Amino acid sequence: MTVTTTSPSKVGSRPVAEPAPRRRPRLPFSAWHLLLAPLAALFAVPLLWLLLSSVMSNAEINRFPPALWPSKIDFGGYSYVLGNAMFPRWLLNSVIVSAVAVTSNLVFGSLGGYAFARMRFAGSRVLLVLMLATMAVPFQLTMIPTFLVMKKLGLIDTLGALIVPSLVTPFAVFLLRQFFLSLPRELEEAAWIDGCSRLRVLYSIVLPLARPALATVAVLTFLTTWNDLTWPLIAINHDTQYTLQLGLTTFQGQHHTRWSAVMAGNVLTVLPVLVAFLFAQKAFIRSVTSSGLKG
Amino acid sequence: MPRLPIPLTMPANRSESRALRRRRRSEAVTAWAFISPAVLVILGLSVLPVVWSLLLSFQANDLVTPSRWVGLDNYRALREDPNFHQAVKNTVVYTVLYVPLSIALGLALALVLNRRIRFVGLYRTLFFVPFVISATAQGVLFSFILDPEFGAANSVLHHLGISPQGFLTDPSQALFVLVAITLWSGTGLCTVIYLAALQDVDQSLIEAARLDGAGRFHLLRHVTLPALSPVSVFLLLWQTIQALQVFDLVYVTTKGGPLGSTTVIVYFIWEQAFKEFTAGYGAAAAYVLAVALLVLAVVMRLLRRERTPRTKAAAS
């Protein structure tokens, strides 16, 4: 039985003997690298350029044509954004908002998800459907009334306005519910018989098993809150309450000719996400793909 | 007597009376305690705003003084507003370019990376990394790289002997430059999702087809792509929703300009509500977008159902 697709007679009719398929002795590596390597470089170059320009002097950037490689490393941009601008404050604000959002999504998402997965109560089905429906609502539809609600609560221009809407998302509740449903019931029932409360069962039996799902919720919550610009732009006016994203774009608008400082600020803005990504790459990619494949 | 769990799987037994009923009531109290934070936030900041937005869209509102009922005037005005038409057109052009390109490029990269070659992990990381970077950071970075005077892009073009380009400052280029930036950051998502899906493609199917003499192209066309089609439909929907809602990148790079050439729908909504303080008008535009997204999602769902052979005609 033949596996090759070319017929033997055709091969035989060619004047020069061809090398057998699948053996290309000329290249020491797969030919696909010739395609992949330049493409990968194209993806990497903007980030490399971000890093390089943050340690270039303004003089080097501002001449024409601008330098593509720093002649010497200059930390002027960094000292400017750390000393003269409010970047440290914005970094702190971003950390506070993201940390609270991640923690509260884990806590409230687990509680809500567990109740929907394992407990019987009146109205649970209606609430679940309602929650699923709100996942499909685009943010643009709710942002104007949310602004008005936050204004009524007196939270506009405070970090509270950024925290409250991201305390718990229907996504976190639903994802954890799905995961809890996939766990075997027997473990929990044994604990029940021993007289454990629901909260105790959730905390000491279910959650340790749910680490992958909790990691997914944490990663996606962190990414969306850290990277968000739209809502801070609407809810915050005063620059002491800016997040990094809002601060960065405002700073760029005000310092159009200090590109090295703008890029230094940009590095500070992306560095936390990049470091988290490089350390937990598997969790990041699994989070993104699992949420994608289930959708 | 040992405390027993409520037999959730069995119907309540009437003879098991009061103790059980009390038990169930306390269970309901606990359950409500568990879900109340989620319900409060989701009802208060999602369900209520959806209704409120609808009411707003029939009102004139400046976010400060009490609003005035105007009926369908906002929607009528939208129909006449050339700026809104322009925003819809820009958004559609952006979406029609970005979505197929990102999916096709993502699929091609995933198919190549699915082979047994070296450095697959490194390539995957490099293609995916831009995805985790915020649209703000991307926008600031590319504003710099593509800056007509100080940017690296024109510097490179200068070395190649090509005249400098306007990029984001050129009305005829800006929207396409935005598509290119989003391709840079969004293709990696498609790649990793396709890669994950390719791991799940039944290897015995491929082996069987190969034994039957199917070539590479036939394998791709008749085995791999059909197996990936649920993921493709998902990505099509997901990327389209993302593209129709693009805002952050536009705000950071062009603010809708030059000459309105990159004003997209969400930018239009934001501008109306929070810059012009015509919140009712903005809410009406938001409703138009939301209904479009809903229709799209429903159509995709029907498409997906039609493709699944298991669905019975009787189901409808």
Summarize the model shown.
Chain A has 295 residues and is mainly α. Chain A contains 16 helices and no strands.
Key terms for this structure?
heterodimer, A: 295 residues, mainly alpha, MetI-like fold, 70% helix, disordered N terminus, B: 316 residues, two-stranded antiparallel sheet, 12 helices, 2 strands, 1% strand
Would you kindly provide a written description of the structure presented here, covering whatever features stand out?
The complex is a heterodimer of chains A (295) and B (316). Chain A is mainly alpha-helical and 295 residues long. Chain A has a single domain, classed as MetI-like fold. Chain A contains 16 helices and no strands. In chain A, helix 10 (186-193) runs antiparallel to helix 11. The longest helix of chain A is centred in the middle third of the chain and has 32 residues, at 87-118. Chain A is globular and about 75 Å long. Chain B is mainly α. Chain B has one domain: MetI-like fold (Orthogonal Bundle). Chain B is 70% helix and 1% strand. Chain B has helices at 17-56, 73-80, 82-113, 120-132, 135-145, 152-159, 174-199, 203-211, 216-244, 248-253, 265-274, 279-307; strands at 59-60, 68-69. Chain B has a two-stranded antiparallel sheet. In chain B, a hairpin with a 7-residue loop joins strand 1 and strand 2. The longest helix of chain B has 40 residues, at 17-56. Chain B is globular, with a radius of gyration of 26 Å. Mean pLDDT of chain B is 87; it is low at 310-316. Chains A and B meet through helix 2, helix 5, helix 6, helix 7 and helix 10 of A and helix 1, helix 3, helix 4, helix 5 and helix 6 of B.
